[in-house]
């Protein structure tokens, strides 16, 4: 097969689906994986290309079986895009320990499992590219997202270490998008206070997919939208001021002690 083979986790919805659509049009061969097999087959039919394989990335045996099947059938994986993830929204003490563990299993350890099984094949074939979809929540703490932030902080640290250890053969990129439009905002904030506060920074899944396509050519650490880079510079130079402003902003939302599940990306 002449087309680059791309394995995409969390491809059944959200950012993962948008990435699959973008790469299919751009001349890549997408291998779609998630737990929702019916939705994956529907997407494959719409793309009119690619392959579908079910996988629960929280299960070691599932991940190993997935990679073995791909190598046996296609012989290689050129690019791995880890986009599966979800979050629990609520006060830190209201989130159960089981929920913290679940987020870590999917958002961080799920990615580690994928890389653990894909990386040896990439090295054997002379190289490869890995793109991990993190979040702005991996660069600064956000009220009511303590567990989610922790998983994304871990993912960025792991990705940076991986980049240092295996370059230039393995090119590792980390994409840190700001808030992405999802049904979560409507469910948790029916008065739309949150979107009204950050409307100019809100992204569509297609925005993230386009940036992912660019990152395949030059994997690196990317923050979108670019305006949010100024916020991070403020955090770096004036951390106390930044945290005070963040607390003030989120206090206006009146969201303390509200708890739910959201799929910032996709875990299905």
From TrEMBL:
One of its GO terms (molecular function) is oxidoreductase activity. One of its GO terms (cellular component) is membrane. The keyword Oxidoreductase applies. One of its GO terms (biological process) is bile acid metabolic process. It comes from the Bacteria. Residues 4-183 form the Ketoreductase domain. Keywords: Oxidoreductase. Belongs to the short-chain dehydrogenases/reductases (SDR) family. This is SDR family oxidoreductase. It comes from Thermoactinomyces mirandus. The lineage of its organism: Bacteria, Bacillati, Bacillota, Bacilli, Bacillales.
């Amino acid at each position: 097969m002449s087309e680059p083979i791309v394995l995409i986790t969390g491809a059944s919805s959200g950012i993962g689906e948008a990435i699959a659509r973008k790469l299919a049009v751009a001349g890549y061969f997408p291998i779609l994986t998630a737990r929702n097999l019916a939705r994956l087959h529907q997407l494959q039919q719409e793309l009119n290309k690619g392959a579908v394989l079910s996988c629960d990335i929280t299960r070691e045996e599932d991940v190993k079986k997935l990679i073995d099947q791909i190598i046996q059938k296609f012989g290689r994986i050129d690019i791995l895009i880890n986009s599966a993830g979800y979050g629990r929204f609520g006060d830190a003490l209201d989130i159960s320990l089981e929920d913290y563990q679940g987020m870590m299993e999917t958002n961080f350890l799920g990615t580690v499992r994928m890389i653990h099984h894909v990386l040896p094949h990439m090295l054997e074939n002379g190289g490869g590219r890995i793109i991990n979809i993190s979040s702005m929540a991996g660069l600064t703490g956000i009220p009511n997202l303590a567990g989610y932030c922790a998983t994304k902080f871990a993912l960025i640290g792991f990705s940076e270490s991986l980049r240092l250890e295996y370059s230039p053969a393995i090119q590792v990129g980390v994409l840190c998008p700001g808030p992405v439009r999802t049904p979560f905002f409507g469910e948790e904030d029916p008065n739309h206070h949150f979107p009204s506060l950050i409307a100019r920074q809100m992204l569509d899944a297609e925005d993230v997919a386009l940036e992912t396509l660019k990152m395949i050519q030059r994997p690196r650490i990317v923050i979108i939208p670019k305006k949010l880079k100024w916020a991070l510079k403020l955090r770096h130079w004036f951390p106390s001021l930044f945290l005070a402003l963040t607390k003030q902003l989120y206090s206006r939302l009146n969201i303390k002690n509200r708890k739910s599940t959201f799929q910032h990306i996709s875990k299905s």
